[in-house]
Structures are given as structure tokens and as C-alpha cells.
Amino acid sequence: MNWLDFWNGSHSIYVCDKHRHCHHARISADIIDRLHGPTGLVIDYGCGEALFAQTVAKHCRKLILSDGAPKIRQLLKERYQGASNIAVLSPEDVLRLDMGSVDCMIIHSVLQYMPQADAETLLGSLADLLAPSGRLIIGDIIPPDHTIFADAGALLALAWQEQFMTKAVIGLVRTFLSDYRKIRADHGLTCYAQSEL
Ligand SMILES: C[S@@+](CC[C@H](N)C(=O)[O-])C[C@H]1O[C@@H](n2cnc3c(N)ncnc32)[C@H](O)[C@@H]1O
Asked: For 51-111, what is the HEC assignment?
């Protein structure tokens, strides 16, 4: 099993619905902040469940959601089938878009799940899609000194703020006993120092 299989399966990264909801609400608010106003074509690459895509889509002409996991794409297609300015594309289809056609590309919490060589190739191809004034926004890059305890601490801090502490503790134990720990041990996460990135 690799990382994409993990995301394509039924994982328990979100410890409860409240966790899933507030994670995606915060990500979408951050994306909207960084769009700096109405934007043309926006791509959220490795978007995951993108629960608030309709909110983000109000700030752009068109929002393309792309994820490598077929199961996630199917879920997104069903969820957003009535949304006129949201499209769901595979990563391969994203690379077939016109060069220079994309105004903003978001890659949040994705690069850690692929080897550095693949990330370099991917970023090169995605950069070709950007308009001259287009922007590439990369987030949640894991620094080399990062530990699994930092992840646990971040979850507990969020759980404290959003009041789902008991479920967070149970979820951490569940994650510790799940495929996640094995995949993380086998495949690791690709880390980058800021200067290296
Ligand atoms: C941690 S989730 C991040 C989801 C969302 N961007 C967020 O910040 O909540 C990682 C996502 O990246 C996707 N992903 C992983 N490797 C990928 C790849 N090589 N190409 C496209 N998507 C990928 C996974 O399927 C998963 O949905």
C-alpha cells in the first residue's frame, strides 16, 4: 500500500465529523484569503474532500478540484454535480489544460506524499499551466525536523479549540493502530527545509 492507496481507502485521519468540518472550513478560508479577490481559473491540486469548495468557488470564475484518488474524485463529482463553476479532474487531465491558462494553483498538504523527484517534475508541469501573472500557492510543507508528535500536538490543539478532545484522543489511538503508522514507517513523508523548497 502506498500513500495514494491510503487516501483512496477508508482512513480515519479525521477523528470525527467536527474535525473534518473545521479542518476544511479553515483550509477554504485560508485559500480565499490568499486569492486576494476575484480570480479567474483556480485549481486545488490534491484537494481531498474539499467540503467548502462552493464557498471558494464564489471567489473565482472556475474552480477545478483535482485529486489523485479515484474514490475522492467520485465523491466530489457527486457532491458538486450541480455547481456550475466547479469541475473535478484527474491529475492527468489537469496536465492537459492549456498552458498559461491557470490564474491560481493551490497545492496544500500534498507534496509530502510523493518522492522529491516526482514533486519536481510535477511542479515543473504545473508551473507551465500558470498564466504570466498566475500564482502557485504551496502549503503544509513538512520540515525535516518534524515528528509524529508534532502532528499529534497540532490535532490536540485544534481539538481543544473546537471542543472535540475526547474524540481526538480516541482518534490518535486508532490512527496509531491503523495502516497510517505502517505506511508512514514504510514510505515516510517527504520533507523540505524552506530554503530547499
Ligand atoms: C492530506 S490530503 C490534503 C487534502 C487537502 N488539500 C487539504 O489540505 O485538506 C492529501 C491529498 O493529496 C492527494 N494526493 C496524494 N498524492 C497525490 C498525487 N500524486 N497526485 C494528486 N493527488 C495526490 C490525496 O489523494 C489526498 O486527497
From this structure: CCHHHHHCCEEEEEEECCCHHHHHHHHHHCCCCCCEEEECHHHHCCCCCCCEEEEEEECCH
**Ligand 1 atom nearest residue 118's Cα:** 19
Indicate the domain borders of the chain: 1-197
**Residue-averaged pLDDT of the chain:** 94
**Residue 179, number of CB atoms within 10 A of its CB:** 15
**Contact of 64 with 96, CB cutoff 8 Å:** no
Share of the chain above pLDDT 90, in %: 83
Residue 116 alpha carbon to ligand 1 centre in Å: 15
Closest C-alpha to ligand 1, atom 26: 48
3-state SS, residue 141: coil
Is the model's pTM score more than 0.85? Answer: yes
Classify strands 39-45 and 60-66 as parallel, antiparallel or unpaired.
parallel
Q: Which residue from 90, 110, 122, 126 has its CB within 8 A of the most atoms of ligand 1, so it is best to mutate?
A: 110
CA distance 131 to 114: 25
CATH number given to 1-197 = 3.40.50.150
- In the three-class reduction of DSSP (H, G, I as helix; E, B as strand; rest coil), residue 187 is classed as helix
